[in-house]
Amino acid sequence: MSYVVEFQGDRRAEEQVRRAAANAIFHRERSLPPKSEGADVGLERAELADDPIDQFRSWFADAEAHPAIAQANAMCLSTLGEDGHPQGRIVLLKGVEDGGFVFYTNLDSAKGRALRIHPRAALTFHWEPLGRQVRVQGGVEPVSPEEADAYFASRPRGSQVGAWASDQSQPLGGRDQLLRRVEELEQRYAGRDVPRPPHWSGFRVRPGSIEFWQAGEYRLHDRFRYDRGGSSGVWVVTRLNP
Predict the structure, then answer these.
(1) Among all residues, which ones are annotated catalytic?
(2) Phi, psi (deg, nearest 5) at residue 212
(3) Beta strands, E only, the chain
(4) How far is Cα of residue 199 from the mean position of the Cα atoms in its chain?
(5) For the whole model, what pTM was predicted?
(6) What is the per-residue pLDDT across 20-65, written as a single tens digit (0 to 9) for each?
(7) Which string of DSSP letters, residue by residue, matches 186-199?
(8) Closest CA to 202 of 147, 135, 125
């Protein structure tokens, strides 16, 4: 019996070691990169533009130019679902136009339905190699049909067909079912342009606040939030504790 107890004790100890090793990555403090090549960590108000859209364009250009960032326009879109629970997913920014952040989707998808019920959203960009984040919060409005048509026409033909084939967010019996729909649609539109589906369009997030986050050593990050100042519409900038 003593040998059995000893063996069980060894197994428990080994399991504890294994779990500790697996969790080590979450507990390890890392040195974070500076805001740009050759620059010291730290961000001051004087370095920021007065308009947050201009500041976003500047940081976005840095992210697009960085070789370690594959998709600078990838962002987490957070919405409030039909059931009242928050939902997040990664989508692609397709433009910063008319004072807002534009993305496109199937209007009957989970996010499309959520935004019709609760027309407010948050966007989060994370550019880890630069040690930067941008957080956007604001109201949501549909883009115009003309804007949606123009963007849809610029998409690869396969993506255009896919917009018709996919009943986004709905149950699917199997991938073969989806591929059959794609084949049928390719035959239907053979030799002619694929029109934009009536259930496919875009949204514009008009920011009420935008926060710029610059990583700092030992979690001493720099954070600046722009808020619209009442009826004047002037942006007010506040430094936040990390």
Answers:
(1) 219
(2) -110, 125
(3) 74-80, 86-92, 95-97, 100-106, 120-127, 132-142, 200-214, 222-229, 234-240
(4) 22
(5) 0.83
(6) 555 654 455 555 454 444 345 689 999 999 999 999 999 999 999 9
(7) HHHTTTSPPPPPTT
(8) 147
